Amino acid sequence: MTGTDRSAARYDGALAATLSGVLDRIRNRGAALPLTDSDRLDGSTCLVTGANRGLGLAIARELAKRGAGLILACRSGLDGAVRDVGSLARRPTDVSGAELDLGDLDSVERCVEDLERRGVRARVVILNAGVVPREARKTRDGFDESFQVNFLADYLFARRLLERGLVASDDSAHLPRLVLVSSESHRSAPPIDLAKLGIFEPWGMRQAVEQYGYGKLLLQTFTSELARRTRGVVAVHSLCPGAVRTDIGREAPRWVKPALDLTMRAFFQAPETASLPAVYLACSRAIEGETDVYLHTTRRRAVSAAASDPVLGRQVWERAESLLATRGHSLRAEPPTPSDSKGT
Ligand SMILES: NC(=O)c1ccc[n+]([C@@H]2O[C@H](COP(=O)([O-])OP(=O)(O)OC[C@H]3O[C@@H](n4cnc5c(N)ncnc54)[C@H](OP(=O)(O)O)[C@@H]3O)[C@@H](O)[C@H]2O)c1
Question: Which of the listed residues 3, 7, 81, 246 has the most CB atoms within 10 Å of its CB?
Answer without folding.
Answer: 81
